[in-house]
Design brief:
single chain; 75 residues; mainly alpha; 2 domains
Length: 75
């Protein structure tokens, strides 16, 4: 992107820039719809870890969760 174009873009109002960002994002999403952004091994491992953690959190008994929440509130 040239400096002249960048300067013109920054002359737009905030609303106009937000609209442009939305249009740009939608165009990127449409291009990538059939080919999602690839994840690195580290990113994939982190997502798997978070999903596993989420599954474990869901498996807690209601009483345990309630106790944890009350303990946090008292801190």
């Amino acid at each position: 992107m040239t400096n002249a174009l960048r300067e013109e873009l920054f002359k737009l109002t905030a609303a106009e820039r937000l609209e442009l960002v939305e249009e740009l994002w939608d165009s990127i999403a449409a291009e990538r719809e059939s080919e999602p952004f690839p994840l690195s091994d580290a990113q994939r491992e982190e997502l798997d870890r978070r999903l596993q953690e989420l599954d474990q959190e869901r498996a807690r008994p209601r009483e345990e969760v309630r106790e944890r929440l009350w303990a946090r509130k008292r801190e």
